[in-house]
Design brief:
The complex is a heterodimer. By secondary structure, chain A is mainly α. Chain A is 51% helix and 0% strand. The relative contact order of chain A is 0.06. Chain B is 68% helix and 0% strand. Chain B has helices at residues 11-19, 23-45, 48-65, 75-92, 94-102, 124-142, 146-157, 162-169, 173-193. The chains are: A mainly alpha, B mainly alpha.
Chain lengths: 222, 200
């Protein structure tokens, strides 16, 4: 070590360290001896004002948007609560009844309206289903026909009146799958459960065999 | 209290006034602490422009949070802790990393340097060598681990007590002193390895 020419000799080490320390101190002081630009107070004030105005410009559109959403929800709620509850049901019933006069906007096409439709009694579930889906005014005959089909299918079908219906209506209304009549079946019988009482004296516990226990060798964590 | 009269008001009174909404009182606090705040940010970032920006951010944040200041520590210490956190956020930011990657800091590892000499006794050549030496030491300081460098720069600036540095860095005073000492040791070791000797 002592032969290394880069290292200080023993007597001069303290002086060497002191000079290096002084050098480090001076360089650090020079690195840190920088003053902020003048006008820090004004710049901070300007930044505070800019931040507050930016906050307002960000907040205002959000408030407008939130107000608009609330207003839309309010309008939707009011319009829904003021609408007569039986509107849709009436429309459906009048469309479903044969020869019934439907409103012009919801009237099925001429062919479908004039076709005698079997007597159906719309069920409550059908009413509810259709109330959730308000009937749109049919602009095309295909749409009106499909709407009539949906309405009739939603109702319960009277088989007798279906027989009397014209073939095209019967084809539209009749179920695609024929179900065979249910024949009488023998009642299913289940055998009685036999109850076996548990006798505690008959319960035996086998002794634990120690040779079956294996212990893995312990590995020390690194 | 306005103008020159505010110069005599203690920090804590100004803080109370600022908490009550007095913007001028806060302005006086900015004036008093701007250098300490700026230099703390400079110690963390190394760039005066970034340090100025972070110092402003720190003051803005301090103004917003001044209601939470309870006086457990001195206002300056509290402010410096805010500044340090802001500076660390900046130091870790992706944008800064990209900027430094594009224009890296000069890391001159030149080994040609001479010992300190009085300027009047140096020749022109020696002055150039002394400047190069300081550049080398600066470069070596920049290569220090961050924890050592932060402690060394904060302590070496002379603006902060060890207790303040301890509060800023969130470590005990003893740890701060060890880091400063360790930073010096590492620097001296590197300088010695670069060939500097003092022949007795």
């Amino acid at each position: 070590m002592r032969d290394d020419p880069r290292l200080p000799r023993a007597g001069s080490r303290g002086r060497h360290d002191d000079r290096l320390d002084a050098l480090i101190d001076r360089v650090v002081r020079e690195m840190m001896d920088v003053d902020p630009r003048p006008g820090m107070r004004e710049r901070v004030r300007a930044r505070l004002e800019a931040a507050s105005s930016r906050k307002w410009t960000l907040t205002f559109p959000r408030l407008v948007l939130a107000g608009g959403v609330v207003a839309l929800m309010l309008v939707a709620f009011i319009s829904k609560s003021t609408r007569p509850a039986s509107d849709d049901a009436t429309t459906i019933t009048s469309e479903a009844r044969p020869g019934g006069s439907a409103p012009a906007s919801a009237a099925p096409p001429k062919q479908a309206a004039n076709t005698p439709i079997p007597q159906v009694e719309p069920q409550r579930s059908a009413d509810r289903t259709e109330r959730r889906r308000p009937a749109a005014p049919p602009h095309k005959p295909e749409l009106a026909a499909s709407q009539a089909q949906r309405l009739v299918r939603a109702a319960s079908i009277d088989a007798a009146s279906l027989d009397a219906a014209p073939p095209e209506v019967a084809a539209a209304v009749a179920p695609a799958v024929e179900i065979a009549p249910v024949t009488d079946i023998d009642p299913i019988r289940i055998a009685r459960l036999s109850q076996t009482p548990i006798v505690p004296s008959e319960i035996r516990i086998a002794p634990l065999a120690m040779d079956q226990i294996e212990v893995a060798p312990l590995t020390l964590p690194r | 209290v306005t103008g020159a009269g505010r110069a005599e008001v203690p920090d804590l009174d100004l803080v109370r006034q600022a908490q009550a909404g007095d913007a001028d009182a806060f302005g006086e606090l900015v004036e008093r602490n701007r250098q300490a705040v700026f230099r703390a940010a400079l110690a963390a970032l190394g760039s005066p422009a970034e340090a100025d920006d972070v110092a402003q951010d720190a003051f803005v944040l301090a103004y917003r949070k001044i209601g939470t200041f309870r006086g457990d520590a001195a206002f300056r210490t509290w402010l410096l802790a805010i500044t340090w956190r802001k500076a660390l956020d900046r130091r870790k930011s992706l944008g800064r990393w990209l900027r430094l990657t594009v224009t890296p800091v000069d890391r001159d590892d030149s080994s040609n340097w001479i010992e300190e000499m009085p300027a009047q006794t140096r020749s022109q050549e020696e002055n150039v060598a002394a400047a190069e030496l300081q550049q080398t030491v600066r470069a070596l300081i920049r290569t220090l681990p961050r924890k050592l460098k932060d402690a060394l720069l904060l302590a070496g600036s002379g603006d902060y007590s060890y207790a303040q540095i301890s509060y800023i860095l969130g470590v005990p005073v003893g740890t701060v002193k060890w880091r400063v000492s360790e930073a010096r040791r590492v620097l001296k070791e590197k300088m010695t390895a670069l060939g500097h000797t003092y022949e007795g």
